[in-house]
Amino acid sequence: AGRFGVRMSVVLTVAPTGPVASKTDNPDLPTQPEEIATAVQQAYEAGAAVAHIHLRDESDRPTANLSIARRTLDLIAERCPILVQLSTGVGLDVPFEDRAALVELRPRMATLNPCTMSFGTAEFRNPYRQVRELARRMLDLGVKPELEIYDTGHLDACLRLRDEGLLGDGPLQFSLVLGVAGGMAATPDNLVTMVRRLPEGSRWQVIAIGRANLTLTAMGLALGGNARAGLEDCLYLRKGELSPGNLPLVERAVRLVRDLDSTVANVEEAESLLALPR
Ligand code: KMH
Ligand code: ZN
């Protein structure tokens, strides 16, 4: 699967803020709408075509609050034409119904997490019945799902959704998430196994959490995948060195792409490579 041996541009996604880390972990983590919009604009200018967005409330807790989401999307749109992908993962304590409501804002893309799982010491609840309803709603609204695969069986759950006609006609877009405690370990073997199992023509990227982030991102690029960079997945540039914001991580990913003799996709190319509706 993928585009190994075929020279296509790489879609680079910035993931500036996740559901777990705080400013105590990295003081440059953007959490408020203005901060997120600034980080996204800088990433866009450096080469990112997609922004994967989590929101925080005034106390920096993960939230699915629609007015915070709307404000963040508006600020991003004022600053750059990057493709916005809202996370419907949101945060581990946020009810599924609230998370799902975010797609009513009609971002170009949103994540779809197919299965309930342990996530560190907590639980990430994604009951299949609700996942299926969310997939149907995204299809109706023209919001392209990014399918988050944290473990081998999650791919099978997504293929069930596809077979039920809930994922649309175009190529599927996957994140192969490696290194969440409760999912697949961040190993080259696991990555290769999952890439081999993807349906022909799939688009995919690696999300490697923590220390393996850089090497598995490079491996994903070498295998023909897209890439994601940002503080959601890794707070450090290298061991012991916190990344001063998202930009150095994005710039490093752009350098990796270019050093591998590829190019980063602009927004128009990314729309077509990811087969976004509209
Ligand atoms: N936080 C990552 C482990 C989502 O936000 O829906 C996966 C992720 C999925 O980014
Ligand atoms: Zn996320």
TrEMBL record:
Q: Does the keyword Coiled coil apply?
A: no
Q: What are the record keywords, sorted?
A: Metal-binding, Transferase, Zinc
Q: Tell me the first and last residues of the signal peptide.
A: none
Q: Name one GO molecular function term.
A: 3-keto-5-aminohexanoate cleavage activity
* Cofactor dependency: Zn(2+)
**Official protein name in the record:** Uncharacterized protein (DUF849 family)
The species is: Amycolatopsis jiangsuensis
Q: Which residues of the full protein are shown?
A: 197 to 474 of 474
